[in-house]
Amino acid sequence: MVAVWLDTWDAQRFVGRSNRTLERWRKAGIVRAGKRRGEWVYDKASLRVAKREAQRRQRETKPGPGRHRSFQTEALFDV
User: Fold this and answer.
1) What is the pTM (predicted TM-score) of this model?
2) What does the alpha-carbon distance between residue 64 and residue 7 come to, in Å, rounded to a whole number?
3) In the list 2, 9, 25, 64, which could disulfide-bond 30, CB 3.0-4.6 Å?
4) Is-contact 46 30, C-beta < 8 A?
5) Which are the contacts of 14, defined by CB distance < 8 A and separation ≥ 6?
6) How far, in Å, are 1, 20, 57 from residue 16 at the CA level?
7) Which pLDDT tens digit goes with each residue over 51-78?
8) Three-class SS string for the chain?
């Protein structure tokens, strides 16, 4: 199978994440990346896996303190 490589801009659009996230994933070894003509390129298959894993983690994450979904800001201002 031939690897498909995406430049940084296309990779950001593909995974819906920022350049900083791609950089973190790259440094952590989560995605395959390399330099081509001085610019980072990302393996599309590894981006797909990382994106799926990030979405799974996001679904499983429960709201933390102060982030409860049913929180009503109006209650703060009741007199």
Assistant:
1) 0.73
2) 35
3) 25
4) yes
5) 6, 44, 47, 48, 51
6) 25, 12, 15
7) 999 998 888 876 666 665 554 454 454 4
8) CCCCEEEHHHHHHHHCCCHHHHHHHHHHCCCCEEEECCEEEEEHHHHHHHHHHHHHHHHHCCCCCCCCCCCCHHHHHCC
